[in-house]
What does this fold into?
Amino acid sequence: MRSVFPLNTLALALLFLATTALPAWSQECYLARGDMAAAAQRPSPLGETIVTLGGETAKVCYGRPSANDRKVVGELVPFGQPWRLGANEATAIHLPFAAEVSGIRLEPGSYSIYAVPGQEEWKFFLNRNFQRWGIPINEEISAEDIGSFTRPAEATDRMVEQLTIGWMAHGGDMGHLVMEWEHTRVEIPIQKAGM
It folds into this structure.
């Protein structure tokens, strides 16, 4: 059967779709204040972590505060109080695919994540509202929570001066986000949904 559209029109239409239908994760990290150049100069600069699952990539955006000779976990970040899991804007995860974050299924999209630290375990919350300043975490914010989970907190042998959220792959379709700061480490498992 002959195409109704001339080849040039079809090619242009496909090119238009390919360049305009970009997934949310490929966008820049949300900034409530300033631009990317200004965010790089903040006392707690913007950090980005790339998560690769099944050949696709997701992104975590977070502010990276430093300890600066302060007692962090339990004092600067108090036990039992909601914490934005970074500094400045809310910490966000951008997923171009459906995923399970510590057992909680998320459809493709962008979400914020915050924590309530404890001495032995941390409780994490996944939230629909990612385009916001990280504090306060009040009833209005928690009303957008999708789910929560707890993860054990481990002590590290080495001092981690600046908050770091890294990615540790465990095969092609799963892995752990690894949050480290001061002498604390918490891992959050992520896998593609249905794996």
Notes: Confidence is low (pLDDT under 50) at residues 1-26. The chain has three helices and nine strands. Residues 24-192 form one domain. The helical segments are 7-20, 36-40, 139-142.
